[in-house]
Design goal:
Blueprint lengths: L11 E3 L2 E7 L13 H18 L4 H8 L2 E11 L8 E11 L3 E10 L2 E13 L10 H13 L2
Antiparallel strand pairs: 1-2, 2-4, 3-6, 4-5, 5-6
């Protein structure tokens, strides 16, 4: 017998923003109970992965069938306030720019109305031998629709 608690959490879109909620657990913190700085990147990665899935892009199937996938090409991050053990956070992701071979996403990690960290992340679409390749046109169109909703 399964229950609603057996299903993994999925974020979703509110307007042009993808929202992904999470809780800070012990593994995310240092011994003082403060979120370790690199874990903000993990939180953002989970949110971006969930956002891509919410766009009906089956990246896992693409990776299995062709070896093509996204890889982070650039990150600019600003840490503003610390997060703490058991904080409930939301990662807000907004598509900023879509190019033939990449997508740039603005991501903000928030505790209620407080901004803890924000970053601009550029992900490039790569072939199985890690060379840039044009994204499937359907994906580009989906990302552009999302970007337009956020304006």
């Amino acid at each position: 017998m399964t229950s609603e608690f057996d299903r993994p959490y999925r974020g979703g879109f509110v307007g042009g923003q993808h929202r992904f909620a999470l809780t800070v657990y012990f593994e995310d913190t240092d011994t003082a109970g403060i979120v370790y700085y690199a874990n903000y990147l993990k939180f953002m990665e989970r949110a971006r992965s969930d956002m891509i899935r919410a766009c009906d892009i089956d990246l896992a199937a693409e990776l299995r069938s062709s070896g093509r996938t996204y890889a982070v090409a650039e990150v600019a991050i600003k840490y503003r306030k610390p997060g703490y053990l058991y904080d409930d956070l939301v990662v807000v992701s907004t598509v900023e720019q879509v190019r033939a071979v990449s997508v740039t996403i603005q991501q903000t990690v928030m505790r209620k109305a407080e901004i803890l960290a924000d970053a601009t992340v550029t992900a490039a679409f790569l072939t199985s031998d890690q060379r840039p390749q044009r994204q499937p046109i359907e994906w580009v169109e989906r990302f552009r629709q999302i970007a337009d909703m956020g304006k």
